[in-house]
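Q: Could you fold this chain for me?
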Amino acid sequence: MAGRETQATRAARGAGVWFALHEYVHDAASASFGMEAAEQLGLDPARVFKTLVADADGTLTVCIVPVAARLDLKALGKRAAMAEKKAAERATGYVAGGISPLGQRRRLPTLLDETALEHETIYVSAGRRGLEIELAPRDLLALTGGTARRMT
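A: Sure. Below is the predicted structure, expressed as structure tokens.
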């Protein structure tokens, strides 16, 4: 399918980790990009993770959490808030709804909800709406220099 090569897929391929791509037709009217991916691909939502960018006490931070869960901003710090959409897009090089934790323009501190480690593989955005990349959570941590911790 067209458009399967993204900065995220190039990063995973360049690192030599196993991954699989899963594509679906994105509906622009969808209220939740992550839940849409889980539903369209017939996946357990516990294995599909959304990539959020938060401002954690002045530092843009990538937070990867299950699509059905809410990010607990208090887990990030006293003055944590969601980053402004334009700031998140500028820092990552991706559009909202298609932000991947892989292949970002600037490497940001990255946190992966520890529930990801309960699964052999998880799904995250591959860098555009309608494209998910499946990979091992430990590979995702290695590729992003991330840390696993509870954020939901």
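A (continued): The chain has a mean pLDDT of 94.
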